[in-house]
Design goal:
Shape: globular
Number of helices: 12
Distance between the termini: 45 Å
Low-confidence stretches: 1-24
Radius of gyration: 21 Å
CATH architecture of the largest domain: 3-Layer(aba) Sandwich
Largest sheet: 10 strands, mixed
Amino acid sequence: MKLRIKLLFVLTLSGSFLSAPARESDKPNFIIVYTDNLGYGDIEPFGSTVHRTPNLNRMAKEGRKFTHFCVTAGVCTPSRASIMTGSYSQRVQMHDNPRDGWVLRPVSPHGLHPDEVTVAEVLKDAGYTTGMIGKWHLGDQLEFMPNQQGFDYFFGIPYSDDMTQEAGRRVAARQKENPRAPNLGGLAWPPLPLMENEKVIEAPVDRDGLTKRYTEKALEWIEENHEKPFFLYFPQAMPGSTSKPFSSPEFRGKSKNGPWGDSIEELDWSQGQLLDKLVELGIAEDTLVIWTSDNGAPINRTPGDISRGSNQPLHGRGYTTAEGAFRVPTLMWWPGTIPADSECGELCTTMDLLPTFAEIAGGKVPGDRIIDGKNVYPLLVGEEKAESPYEAFFYYDGPQLQAVRSGPWKLFVPLESFRNHPHFGRNDDSGKKPLLFNVVEDIATENDVAAEHPDIVAKLMKYAEDARADLGDMDQKGSGQRQIGTNENPTPRLLSDSQ
């Protein structure tokens, strides 16, 4: 397999690739494991001394660790929109809306527009069987669901596991007291539904058993489809958005860090099952497996309390534009192709998976729209002198541009008012003046060097101006934004409708 891939990708002096047509049998499989709210410091390969993750240690030893791999949002829905479309969530307008806020709620009229081209559709067109097992969270109306977005098979929940019927009642009560709370449009949230394709098969689902059930279903699906090229998107539900994550009885109370640790150690078990299945079927060398997270851990604000995860040694919590929200623990495993026990410190992002997979699979990146992601195959395989393809990368908090990265430099732009600024309170003017950090040398972003590098500040401010014009900023519409999907008469996903 390694020889075939090397023949497919001949790096020219100009940095472009010459690709020979691959036979269908030569196309590798792709698996993305996308955990929910897992922090940078929550697993052993990234420094955890509390959570036991032997299978992820194995994955790192046999694969490649990415220490500057970023998502495009510090929260669920926009992050997932980017991994599916290869674009900033602001471009596809899945980042914020008056009805739902940051993330889509049950029975939302919004979702990923059906005209968007997902990574599943790109690979399906290239001859792949496509499956999704886990959390979707890109719209729960049928036209927005996985089966209409390129997936042949779906098993999972349409939104976050904490969006239960009981939680909906609490949100509705808050709506009466706070006009800024999400407007439910008069519809109550249904019992949390477990779906197979477009049918609800259980409601409410047992949240304790989700990791185990997802894993069993993933192994079954791989077994059924391993004789042809496949793409499995496997967004796990845990450790999740609740203060006390769920785990099956075999793992409950077994870790050193309560429910959070229990859920992570079960996720590690799940990953071991997955890797072992690929070896058992003889397709390990034909399969690229990626383990990452949709954003950083929410973390507790009490120093030393890791009961809601750890983003150490990075600064900040999830749901912000801090490094601890955007940089996520990422491992890539492809025996015989990705160099074992290796590390990549170059900036790359979830947006890059669509164009990279397309290049490897002989597929086509959509040419009729802007795709923000880059082909980072050279970084995956450790090409000598391979560098990040990003001239600039943008950190948005919902609709507000807050920071820009270029090379090792990250600039927090000055803002008179801001949402959830990760550095607010560090000094009296924090957030209202430019803050510049070297995120390679100063991993905890402790030393603001803006005054020492006015030229770099000016350069990154220009990038920010360009981003605002293209992707928008607060009330400013971006010229490059596309439409969000809309259903004016949304209906809940109910068990009774599927029987």
